[in-house]
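<instruction>
Derive structure tokens from the sequence
<data>
Labelled lines for chain and fold:
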Amino acid sequence: MRLRRRKRPEESAWRAVRRCVVFFTTICIVPVLLVLIVTTDSYMRPVKQTPFLKPQFDNVEHLEPSLHNLTGVEKRLERRRLHLQKACKLLGLNVPGNDSLHKPNPWEFLVDTKHHLVWCNVFKAASTSWMYNFNILAGYSPNFLKKSKVVPLSLARQKYPRPSLPFLKKAFNNSVSFLITRHPLERLLSAYRDKLMFALPHTHHRKLGNEIIVKYRGKVKHQKGFKAEKWPTFPEFVLYLLDCVKQGQTLDMHWTPITEFCTPCMFNFDIIAHTETLQEDQQYIIKKARLEGLVEPQWRNAGHGTTARQIRKYYSQLSRSQILQLYHIYRYDFELFNYSLNGYLELGQPDDDPSTLLAAITLKDFPQSKDKPRLY
């Protein structure tokens, strides 16, 4: 009996120590493992391999035997179209509703009834090129367009008024309809450089840039050797964008998500072109719409275009948690058009506080506006 009485306190103390070890191991190691698993898996692969869509997109040709009769370009475009349809259904974006994701938005469409062509104009995704093409199809001469001081979009709207939803739906039935997409983070960087870094004096974007500097310049920890410029830095711009979304503010049309801008799940597009394969995709559009001899495939206004070196330069200025927050803003663009964070997330700087990264990983998507799309 005496031996048992001596062991009980020792066993009780050892049990308490073990519980403490297990507890502290759990709270310290599990979050780190979660960060490693998520950042190297879910965000780094195209959407067709994520838990949302894993079974459906492994082999589209197996699901659609008709793909075997198509050319290489036709197969690629058909895969994108099928991917969009299935992703819309699985994410519930094909069900009409009252918010900006579920309500058809005809605002940025151009409808050429003469040539039976429908295009949703996505800014910073070959929009200058196809605005030029639509103006040519409208009857403007190249010489006139070169000399004109009128904004090309204003010229186009004189010939192609903003369509009503019934008119647009009717046009889809007898036209070649297309949409040009771009990697969301590449498009965002292109918009920043074109509209803020190279903003013209006395313009809306020059004024916006000044406002961003006043509000955020003292809040950003810049890299060593930072030299203050007359335009906002990329981290300052990203802080501004994140705050706009958190506060439910209207986003500038140059960086509004394509999913809200064109509501692609509400329309049945014939062609989903990507800037990454723009030359071949444009040639196919022109041939499909029988526009040979009228317009040519091109990418105008590429002087401020983004390159791999620029992507490294600018996204290495952000933290990984900021890049993940940007992902949540553009998540549907990533998933519907099969883009991934591969090549971006690893460029980000490690967060000083791991809990910040964990919060970004577990962040729910920012709420969408129920009253109006963020377009202007």
The chain has 16 helices and four strands. The mean pLDDT is 85. The longest strand covers residues 176-181. Residues 2-39 form the longest helix (38 residues).
